[in-house]
């Protein structure tokens, strides 16, 4: 059968091409165009738009006036159809592990954790970046709906960053599924629910590291530092971590001028892989040369080389460069510091090149005036002040003048101090001072000259091992109480001592430790002359402290101290050199130096042995932004006349303290009471200081 043309295609009425474009238009198109459009072609009667379809003779298909369709036979279900694990059946799309981010926000993950192993990390990042969490939409359903779209896009981006490029996120708001999922939220309290279907995780494909192979023998080490290989799960966070690790490895392997371009990741959805391009230019391997300074009379290059932890010829390490910069800043003498490796000779073959470390500095303000005020029960008030020029004798030669005006102590002194003396973090100190004290135990008027050479542990460079040694010359005139309100006769002592100190410190912070331990020993052989008689003895003290974190908010700390002075009687030892107990750094609840043997009028006379123990719980609270803490404590201590501690008269104190964390260190206020006080002990003690009690 030959199909009949439709009416609109009737060759008897449709205009021909020659009618539409005459020969005159071809001969002279411009004139023809100026004539305008031709008159419309009239429509024949049988082409009228109101002509009924059943009157069109060209159609031979009858119009279906009373069409009845037969019923569709139901198909039997296919028994062999299964759903992939990562694309669960619709009936199970509301099932899974639920993470309640907040009252208004819930994420549902697949029950099988292997389909999305990073769910905990993803949830944490999502919570940190969530618009709903940040803005706290509350009961505003319209605002929550708008924020949920942003969070949905955020969740999809995070899934892609973890390598799930085919993941689906189904959003439900206020109990009504946005894309067909059934929600269970209470419309009275609007909430958002995200159902995560991760899909297949993409893998790393080809890796291009540019010229990294030019590192030669270091190439394998560099690849190990990056840590990812073709076929590994695609994770943008791990790629960024690998890039940083590769950059650090290059800096530690002797490549000061290494450059790494921005990474490029090309994702192929057909292969379900991502090809990574990370162009690396090593730019040669180098060793250290010398250190130069732009301020040679202020901090010379020679002095800076003594501070540095590298020698000329050592392999360049970026960590050594950064360490030198921190050490220069730690002097407190400069406001800005810039270090730049400068090529002296290029690499030749397998021989590395040489770079000098060029140090550019600007001077800081070198004069400092300081002041402080403190109070302790039994010690009274103490006002201290000082003036210091930190580089009066370059390099790093400081002069300090200090004074104390207190209820029971007055002091005037001058100190010379050379930091980084003959090496890093080694300090030479010469201190001359005169002081008068008026304690319950004794009065003393003392002049001292002390020289110390030490290796310090500082807030910026806390060390596991620190030590000191020195020489001490003391001339002191002292007297003890004989009766109430009266003192005994003055007695003069001339003392020479060789004090030494060593500490092993594994704690995590000098002022506020939360874990680790400290062990220290002080040994000072001394000779003292009084009334023409010489006495030889050794002052020794051993301290141990331990810090145990019980949780993120609770640290249990313990301390023990044992001290002894063998070799002389109590009367042969100057009162200021004897051992005393009690006070803020000893047994809290008792007055300063109030524990131990006493005179007939009840004043402490000191002893030759001491034992102390402390236990406290350092508890963080949520008050003041988490800066406020409380510290319940119990202390115990004893002082005896003999060289061996006697626990028959041990004193115990207990109380509670408050700590305010300033960021630099905690401010400490302790309130203690004596649990077994003597007749001359106060009812309580209050102690204020910076840092923990131990």
The number of helices is 10
CATH topology of the domain at 489-690: Porin
Would you tell me the structural class of the helices and strands?
Answer: mainly beta
**Average residue-wise pLDDT:** 85
CATH architecture of the domain at 489-690: Beta Barrel
Cα Rg: 43 Å
- Provide the low-confidence segments as ranges: 1-14, 40-53, 80-93, 175-187
Largest sheet: 18 strands, antiparallel
Indicate the overall shape. Answer: elongated
Q: Helix share of residues? A: 10-25%
Determine the N-to-C terminus distance.
Answer: 108 Å
Which range does the strand content fall in? 35-45%
Query: How many distinct beta strands?
Result: 30
Quick one: CATH superfamily of the domain at 489-690? Answer: membrane protein fhac: a member of the omp85/tpsb transporter family
The CATH top-level class label of the domain at 489-690: Mainly Beta
Description:
With 694 residues, the protein is mostly beta strands. The protein has 10 helices and 30 strands. The protein has helices at 17-20, 23-27, 29-34, 119-129, 131-135, 141-161, 219-226, 236-252, 301-307, 318-330; strands spanning 97-102, 105-109, 168-173, 176-177, 192-197, 203-210, 259-260, 264-268, 273-281, 286-293, 334-345, 353-363, 367-376, 380-389, 397-406, 409-418, 426-438, 442-455, 465-483, 486-487, 491-497, 500-505, 516-530, 533-549, 554-564, 609-620, 628-640, 651-661, 666-674, 685-690. The strands form 4 sheets. The protein has an 18-stranded antiparallel beta sheet that branches. Helix 4 (119-129) packs across helix 6 (141-161). 26% of the residues are buried. Residues 1-14, 40-53, 80-93 and 175-187 have low confidence and may be disordered.
């Amino acid at each position: 059968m030959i199909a009949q043309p439709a009416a609109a295609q009737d060759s008897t009425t449709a205009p021909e091409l020659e009618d539409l474009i005459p020969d005159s238009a071809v001969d002279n198109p411009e004139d023809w165009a100026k004539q305008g459009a031709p008159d419309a072609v009239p429509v024949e009667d049988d082409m009228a738009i109101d002509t009924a379809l059943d009157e069109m003779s060209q159609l031979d298909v009858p119009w279906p006036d009373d069409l009845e369709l037969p019923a569709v036979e139901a198909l039997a279900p296919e028994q062999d159809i299964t759903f992939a694990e990562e694309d669960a059946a619709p009936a199970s799309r509301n099932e899974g592990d639920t993470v309640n981010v907040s009252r208004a926000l819930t994420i549902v993950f697949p029950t099988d954790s292997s389909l999305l192993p990073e769910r905990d990390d993803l949830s944490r990042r999502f919570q940190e970046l969530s618009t709903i969490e940040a803005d706290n939409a509350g009961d505003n359903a319209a605002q929550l709906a708008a924020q949920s779209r942003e969070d949905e896009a955020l969740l999809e981006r995070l899934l892609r960053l973890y390598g799930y490029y085919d993941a689906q996120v189904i959003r439900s708001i206020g109990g009504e599924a946005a894309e067909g999922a059934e929600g269970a939220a209470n419309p009275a309290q609007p909430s958002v629910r995200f159902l995560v279907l991760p899909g297949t995780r993409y893998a790393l494909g080809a890796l291009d590291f540019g010229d990294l192979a030019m590192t030669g023998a270091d190439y394998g080490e560099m690849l190990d530092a990056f840590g990812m290989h073709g076929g590994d799960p695609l994770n943008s966070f791990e790629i960024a971590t690998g890039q940083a690790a590769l950059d650090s490895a290059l800096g530690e392997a002797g490549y000061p001028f290494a450059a790494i371009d921005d990474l490029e990741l090309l994702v192929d959805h057909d292969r379900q892989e991502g090809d990574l391009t990370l162009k690396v230019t090593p730019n040669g391997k180098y060793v250290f040369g010398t250190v130069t300074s732009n301020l040679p009379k202020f901090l010379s290059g020679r002095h800076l080389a003594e501070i540095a932890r590298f020698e000329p010829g050592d392999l360049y390490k970026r960590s050594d460069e950064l360490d030198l910069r921190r050490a220069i800043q730690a002097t407190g003498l400069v406001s800005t510091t810039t270090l730049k490796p400068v090529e002296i000779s290029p690499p030749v073959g397998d021989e590395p090149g040489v770079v000098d470390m060029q140090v550019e500095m600007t001077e800081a303000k070198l004069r400092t005036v300081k002041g402080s005020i403190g109070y302790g029960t039994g010690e009274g008030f103490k006002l201290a002040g000082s003036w210091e020029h930190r580089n009066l004798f370059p390099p790093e030669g400081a002069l300090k003048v200090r004074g104390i005006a207190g209820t029971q102590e007055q002091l005037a002194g001058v100190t010379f101090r050379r930091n980084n003396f003959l090496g890093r973090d080694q300090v030479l100190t010469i201190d001359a001072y005169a002081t008068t004290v008026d304690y319950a135990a004794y009065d003393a008027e003392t002049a001292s000259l002390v020289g110390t050479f030490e290796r310090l542990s500082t807030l910026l460079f806390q060390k596991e091992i620190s030590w000191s040694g020195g020489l001490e010359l003391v001339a002191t005139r002292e007297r003890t109480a004989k009766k109430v309100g009266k003192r005994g006769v003055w007695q003069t002592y001339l003392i020479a001592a060789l004090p030494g100190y060593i500490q092993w410190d594994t704690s995590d912070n000098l002022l506020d430790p939360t874990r680790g331990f400290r062990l220290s020993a002080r040994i000072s052989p001394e000779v003292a002359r009084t009334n023409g008689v010489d006495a030889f003895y050794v002052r020794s003290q051993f301290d141990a402290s331990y810090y145990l974190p019980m949780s993120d908010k609770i640290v249990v700390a313990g301390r023990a101290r044992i001290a002894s002075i063998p070799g002389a009687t109590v009367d042969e030892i100057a009162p200021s050199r004897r051992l005393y107990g009690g006070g803020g750094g000893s047994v809290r609840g008792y007055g300063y130096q109030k524990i131990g043997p006493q005179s007939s009028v009840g004043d402490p006379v000191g002893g030759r042995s001491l034992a102390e123990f402390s236990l406290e719980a350092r508890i963080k609270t949520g008050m003041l932004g988490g800066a406020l803490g409380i510290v319940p404590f119990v202390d115990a201590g004893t002082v005896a006349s003999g060289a061996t501690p006697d626990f028959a008269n041990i004193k115990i104190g207990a109380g509670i303290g408050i700590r305010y964390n300033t960021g630099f260190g905690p401010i400490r206020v302790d309130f203690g009471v004596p649990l077994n006080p003597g007749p001359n002990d106060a009812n309580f003690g209050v102690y204020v200081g910076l840092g923990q009690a131990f």
